[in-house]
Structure formats: C-alpha cells, structure tokens
Amino acid sequence: MKRRREYSSRVRRRATAGAVLAGIALAVGAQASAPVGGPPTFDFNRCDSFLRPCDDPIVVGKARHFIGPIEVVGMHFEGHGGGLCMFFDSIRLHGGFGYCGGPPRPPDGKALTFGSLGTTEFRKRPITQIDGSLVPEVAKVRASYRREGEMKNRRAAVVQVAGELQEYLQEPETFGVYELTVRGCIPPRRFRITALDSSGQILGRARGWRRPRFRCRGSQRVGLVGRDGGSETRYGRGRVSAVAPPRGPAQGPS
C-alpha cells in the first residue's frame, strides 16, 4: 500500500508540467495528449456514486486514428466490492466511452473478447469504436468488417498494462485491452477480431454478437450492459453518467 501511494505522488509530480503544456497546446488548436503514467488530459467526473471512493485516473496507453489521439485511461474504484474502470478519451471529440466493473482479462482459454461497441459522430458523420480485453501474450489485433458492401481490414491499438501501472490500478495480474475507431456506423455482428503474438501467430478470434439487435441511431453504447453485469458510462464535456451499476462478479462475453 505504501508503494502504491508513493507511485501515485510520483505520477502527479511527473505529469503536472505535461498536463499544463497539453492544455496550452489544445488552446491554440494543436492535438496534444497526456503522457503515459500521468493524469488524463480531461478532468471528467468519472467517479459517480456507484463507484466511490475511487483512485485518481491514470493514462495507461495511447492510440491514434483518423479522429486524432486517444488516451486509454484506467481507474480503480472501491464501491460495490471494487474493480477496474477503463475509458477511451478522444482529444478532438472532447469525450468518449468507458466501462466499469467488466472483467480485465478474457475468460480462461480465450485470447481476447469482443467487449463493447459505441457509435457517435465526427464532423457530422457516424463513427464506431470497439474495445475488448486481451491476454498478455497478444501483441497485435486485427479487425475485419463489412461496410457498404466492402470488406475492410484495420489494425487496432493494443495496450498491455503491467508493472507500476498495474500495481497502481490494484490489478493482481497483467492485463491488456485493444481499441479501434472506424468510419461509419457498423453493427457488432459485422466485426471479426483476430489476436496475434509478436511473431504473427494467431492466438484466437472473436466475433461481434448478433443479440441484442443493434440499430444505428446517434450516440450509443452496447456490450457490457446486460451481458456481463458491468457498469457502462458515456461521458463528455465534463460530465459522466452511469447507465447501470455493477451487479456482482462479471463474466466475459462469448
């Protein structure tokens, strides 16, 4: 516990200058993001009444897509028995999606999960974001999906959380997540996700689910709510709202 507190203090000291510079860069129109190991760029109210008390959120990884930089943010919460929250902050959208209480690792025997899917708009056009959990051996994640009758193939961002970051989040084992943002509103059933190790060997595959039925209708999020008992959040412009509270131990979606 002492080591975790010391690391938290060290993170805040190390990241203060970076956060100030990031704020200045955003003010003049540049696309800046916070450093890994520091506090996220945006000070959203991520810790709602279902989760309190919570540790300070921390950036555990980064991604970059056509919408610009994305910060992968982790946060440990104590409410309802404690657990992990993961957020995916878009710098240009000034918001994003996240979930709390979901499993940080895939079920035994699986290399990855199709965790959740969210849709919103960027420059008045729809975009889709997907994420899921990974085992530590995964180094690459590829996604294939059909859009307007054409097959697309994209590489997702992979973040493996270990060492001091893992310790700060109070997770007993190394865990990984992937994240991908694509153009268009893509239903979950159209996605096929493949996990590979550093040599390119396939470790496992996951498919988007067919139920519940998904319809494209503005900003929404599906996956963790009702499937594994996790709490899902949709946040932005300085606010965060819980869609559902944690409901006991979570089971990963198949």
Description:
The protein is mostly beta strands. The chain has one domain. It is built from 2 helices and 14 strands; from the N terminus they run H-E-E-E-E-E-E-E-E-H-E-E-E-E-E-E. Strands 11-10-7-8-9-6-5-12 form an 8-stranded antiparallel beta sheet. Strands 1-2-3-4-13-14 form a 6-stranded antiparallel beta sheet, with no helix packed on it. The chain is globular, with a radius of gyration of 17 Å. Mean pLDDT is 77; it is low at 1-30, 224-231 and 234-254.
- Quaternary state reads single chain
Total number of beta strands: 14
Summed over residues and divided by their number, the pLDDT gives a mean of 77
Helix amount, in percent? 10-25%
Write a brief structural summary.
This protein has 254 residues and is mostly beta strands.
Layout of helices and strands, plus pairs?
Layout: H1 2-27, E1 58-65, E2 68-77, E3 83-90, E4 95-100, E5 116-122, E6 125-134, E7 140-147, E8 150-161, H2 163-168, E9 175-183, E10 192-196, E11 202-207, E12 220-222, E13 231-236, E14 239-242
Antiparallel strand pairs: 1-2, 2-3, 3-4, 4-13, 5-6, 5-12, 6-9, 7-8, 7-10, 8-9, 10-11, 13-14
